[in-house]
Design brief:
With 494 residues, the protein is mainly α. It has a domain at 263-429. The protein is built from 18 helices and four strands. It has helices at 8-14, 26-38, 51-61, 74-87, 94-109, 131-141, 151-158, 203-215, 223-236, 263-295, 310-336, 338-350, 359-368, 374-389, 397-411, 423-429, 443-454, 482-488, and strands spanning 164-168, 174-179, 471-473, 479-481. A two-stranded antiparallel sheet has the order 1-2. A hairpin with a 5-residue loop joins strand 3 (471-473) and strand 4 (479-481). The two termini are 34 Å apart.
């Protein structure tokens, strides 16, 4: 997985046990199985082991973005929190003070209520994985954090007095400028964590974040950076709604300056689109096959431990089977459209390029730094071959056998297909959730960030945090006249 590595205890104790099945060696697969054995509610969102492709393309398109993140302003708040905690006098260990600060941040944001992206709103002080951990890879990728280590190592470093950066003021006096962990930050506002906080960006904060994306090596030429530029322009002309319906990274708005995308951007978007279109079919069919198994299976235990009726679960499975067969048919119609069919036929040919420096697998090797496994390559090739040959006949015994074999090779005795107990019954007990569909490469998260950028200074999603008309939100949550806000804005780099 492309997300930051964490200990098994942290991973299982902090978040729902949603683990993608990785296309790795046998030892790595066995390690994942042991993790799932430790979990009370094991489940796999990527049951066909396509996560290696999905994550490599997502990291290329939107570096530093994770589905575990929520709102963009956390990229501003977390460094401020580190700075404020380091500057405070206390005998408590820095690690404890930082955790207390993150809990306080949750409390200060809690007034926003649900569905506003507040991390830890329900758990509060019991939250096991704090925002600093969830955002750390992004902070490093965007070069906001300059420390090349884990968040735990950064916290340990921040707790040492030796990492205070010392600079000289205009009069030649030595002054402490902050922790030597960060790029040049916006000033920590007076009263930070002393009053209710918000997650809407001020204009200076939005401009600072866009500048970070323009400057960082991993993002400066990425689709994410160009999308952020587009959202920034939408903000300046007062048309934040431009970014709201940007459903996929390749579904560019009509007025998007496509000429700014380089060949690498275009190649990544092309491969991402084709991978999503080809693999959506087997991912839907996998769910169809599960529903068929469930409709033939007697009752199990629901999540409360109570027995469920075999008749009830069979009826529900039949209902889902009809729904998912409908989705499979809709997918087949989409990929049969002339323009899509032509694109996928060309992409299918790229899977078998004789030149190892060309084609999709060469692109993926460049992104991941290693070859895809033969099993993964074979599975994708087989799926693409059938899609190009006849999408309407995709549901056939040969493809079903490929899907069964793929799941079994990844999961062993945790495979759901072909099982009438254990993993299959656990899936039934959870309500038979759909575990497939098209890949969006974390783009839903990106669109949320673009919405925050485009709405900067106007309250964003948590609009009750905005000041009165004619005023502009500042980093401390207060509202000041726009003229004053303009004077406080840092100079932009172009």
């Amino acid at each position: 997985m492309a997300e930051p590595r964490r200990s098994a205890a942290a991973a299982l104790g902090s978040m729902p046990a949603e683990i993608a099945w990785l296309d790795r060696d046998l030892a790595s697969q066995e390690q994942v199985r042991r993790l799932l054995d430790m979990s009370e509610e094991p489940r796999a969102l990527d049951s066909l082991g396509l996560g290696a492709i999905r994550d490599a393309l997502a990291d290329e398109i939107a570096p530093g973005v994770s589905t575990a993140q929520s709102r963009l302003r956390y990229f501003v708040l977390i460094p401020w929190l580190f700075e404020q905690v380091a500057a405070a006098s206390s005998r408590k260990p820095y690690t404890r003070r930082l955790r207390d600060g993150e809990v306080e941040l949750i409390e200060r944001l809690s007034r926003l209520g649900p569905r506003q992206g507040v991390i830890g709103l329900q758990s509060r002080s019991d939250l096991k994985v704090m925002p600093s951990t969830l955002y750390w890879t992004g902070l490093r990728t965007w070069e906001i954090a300059r420390f090349d280590g884990s968040v735990r190592q950064a916290i340990e470093r921040a707790g040492s007095a030796r990492v205070r950066r010392v600079e000289t003021d205009a009069d030649g006096h030595r002054v402490e400028a902050g922790l030597d962990l960060w790029c040049e930050l916006l000033p920590v506002p007076d009263g930070f964590l002393k009053r209710p906080e918000h997650l809407s960006l001020s204009i200076p904060e939005a401009e600072w974040l866009v500048d970070r994306l323009r400057a960082a090596a991993a993002t400066r030429d990425s689709v994410l950076r160009h999308a952020a530029d587009y959202a920034d322009r939408a903000r300046t002309v007062g048309e934040a709604e431009r970014v709201r319906d940007w459903a996929t990274p390749w579904d560019l708005p009509g007025d998007f300056p496509i000429g700014r995308l380089n060949n690498r951007n275009r190649e990544a978007l092309h491969h991402a689109r084709c991978v999503s279109e080809v693999t959506e079919g087997p991912r839907i069919l996998y769910n169809v096959m599960l529903a068929e198994c469930a409709s033939q299976t007697s009752g199990g235990e629901d999540t409360s431990g109570e027995e469920t009726s075999g008749e009830d679960s069979a009826d529900e499975a039949q209902s889902k089977l009809e729904c998912w067969n409908g989705r499979l048919g809709e997918w087949a119609e989409r990929v049969s459209q002339p323009a899509t069919a032509k694109r996928l036929e060309q992409w299918h040919r790229s899977l078998n390029r004789s030149d190892p420096a060309e084609g999709f697998w060469a692109c993926l090797r460049g992104l991941r730094g290693r070859e895809a496994s033969p099993d993964l390559s074979r599975f994708v090739n087989d799926m693409a071959t059938q899609v190009v040959k006849s999408p309407a006949n995709f549901d056939n015994e040969a493809i079903r056998a490929c899907i069964r074999q793929r799941e079994c090779s990844l999961k062993g005795n945790r495979a759901r297909l072909g099982s009438t107990y254990g993993p299959l019954k656990a899936w039934i007990a959870r309500g038979m959730p759909f575990t497939g569909g098209a890949f969006d490469y974390r783009w839903a998260q990106v669109v949320g960030y673009l919405g925050d950028l485009a709405a900067a200074g106007r309250g964003g999603w948590d609009s009750d945090a905005s000041g009165p008309p004619g005023n502009e939100l500042q980093g401390d949550g207060s509202a000041v006249p726009k003229a004053d806000a303009d004077r406080s804005r840092p100079r932009r780099r172009r």
